[in-house]
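My hope is that you will study the record closing this message with an eye to the fold:
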Amino acid sequence: MYSDKSPLQIRQMIRRGEFQGNTSGVAAGFVQGNLVILPKDYAGDFLQFCQLNPKPCPLIGMSERPGRFMLPSLGEDLNICTDIPKYRVYRDGELIKELPDVSALWRDDLVTFVLGCSFSFEEALLADGLEIRNISEGVNVPMYRTNIPCKPAGCFSGDTVVSMRPMKAADVIRAIQICSRFPSVHGAPLHLGDPTEIGIEDIDKPDFGDAVTIKEGELPVFWACGVTPQVAIEQAKPSFCITHSPGHMIVTDLANSRLAIF
């Protein structure tokens, strides 16, 4: 649904309250991003955390200076306060609320980071004839906490979050080949097969998003996920932070093809 809409049309629909769901599959051909907004006192540490952990935290854009809520480098009339379907607000590392608009919370010391999202490479997988189960079942992608540690930076640390898409073994090799071309949106999978090897005890109970059907003969395939910073935020306990709600991304004007390596 809404795959034929432009990124600007999607953002305007979100801003008007006409679209409030997860953004998987919308605005085909364009990069979607995970969001982290932090006070400038934490921005240096978080930037280093992204640089040290490029698989789960591939940085594709940030605000030009503190207090800027428009991001012209990522999209026409892109307002980071209004153009995501659902935001999460944290204080001292605790999730306190989810909101459809964070304009009333905006401050002049806030710095915005936008990280690449796996929804971007889903399009390439679909184009090659591979099924994306969360799209075909009309739900949010399942995401899980793992025991894969991130490299710490300042106050930020924690374990990697992964997203999962089930595939037949014959399709996994092709998926690895395709996703390896997109390092800016998490790249190749981190793991496939037994989820307990990366600390996931119950594949049917994701920590974020929705469970999907895993059919007989299929393997769960796990990619690094941009929800990882939310785990790091829980650990760092910054005084204030805004993120996207899992699955509810910022849709940019960047073409997916611009992030591909051939």
Residues 40-52 form the longest helix (13 residues). The first strand starts at residue 30 and ends at 39.
